[in-house]
């Protein structure tokens, strides 16, 4: 499993001087992408244990239910061949184990959180890719020249919209 390290975030030093506009935009773009990667990394890292618990509890529920369904039949068949067959009352315990596993999953929200985290991770990855394309599209409009103040302002707006959009995505998942 690939690790998603936390990228150290520090707001870049920006001068907004004509000769540094391109570097300032690059620094802000890298900063915005780092925010996105950190957000995505959070969901990637934290979905692993939720997935493990969700799968384990669901597997226990499936197996316990199967055992509960088979126990009375096995007990009846065994009673023909063995003096002390397995008591069919154990089926009630197996059902209880299955129901408890499902209840624990629902109470702690492992399955639903896992799905939310995966969905949010995919959304964030898509937003990062779209952001990169929007930045490249804006840079294309610079026609190979350093950006003017108007072009830099337009690019800054793209960066701000992306950061706000990331924040809204995280807020939506949290709610």
Unreliably modeled segments: none
Structural class: mainly alpha
Instruction: Count up the domains.
Output: 1
Count of helices? 4
**In whole angstroms, how far apart are the ends?**
28 Å
Q: Let me know the average pLDDT.
A: 91
Proportion of residues in β-strands: under 5%
Helix content percent band: over 70%
| Rg, Å, rounded | 27 Å
Apparent shape? rod-shaped
Describe the sheet with the most strands: none
**Element-level helix/strand string:** HHHH
Write down how many β-strands occur, each being a DSSP E stretch of 2 or more residues: 0
Please give a quick description of this structure.
By secondary structure, the chain is an all-alpha fold.
Secondary-structure map:
Layout: H1 21-79, H2 90-108, H3 110-140, H4 149-174
Helix pairs in contact: 1-2, 1-3, 1-4, 3-4
Keywords:
mainly alpha, 175 residues, rod-shaped, 4 helices, 0% strand
Task: Note down, in words, how this protein is organized.
77% of the residues lie in helices and 0% in strands. The chain is mainly α and 175 residues long. The two termini are 28 Å apart.
């Amino acid at each position: 499993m690939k690790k998603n390290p936390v990228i150290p975030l520090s707001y870049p030093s920006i001068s907004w001087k004509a000769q540094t506009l391109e570097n300032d935009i690059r620094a802000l773009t890298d900063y915005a992408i780092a925010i996105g990667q950190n957000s995505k990394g959070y969901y990637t890292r934290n979905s692993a244990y939720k997935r493990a618990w969700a799968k384990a509890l669901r597997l226990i529920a499936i197996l316990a239910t199967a055992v509960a369904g088979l126990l009375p039949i096995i007990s009846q068949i065994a009673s023909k061949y063995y003096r002390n067959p397995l008591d069919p009352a154990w089926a009630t315990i197996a059902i209880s184990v299955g129901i408890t596993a499902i209840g624990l999953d629902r109470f702690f929200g492992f399955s639903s959180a896992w799905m939310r985290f995966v969905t949010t991770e995919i959304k964030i990855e898509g937003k990062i890719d779209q952001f990169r394309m929007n930045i490249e599209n804006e840079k294309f409009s610079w026609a190979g020249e350093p950006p003017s103040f108007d072009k830099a302002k337009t690019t800054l707006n793209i960066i701000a919209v992306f950061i706000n959009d990331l924040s809204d995505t995280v807020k939506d998942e949290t709610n």
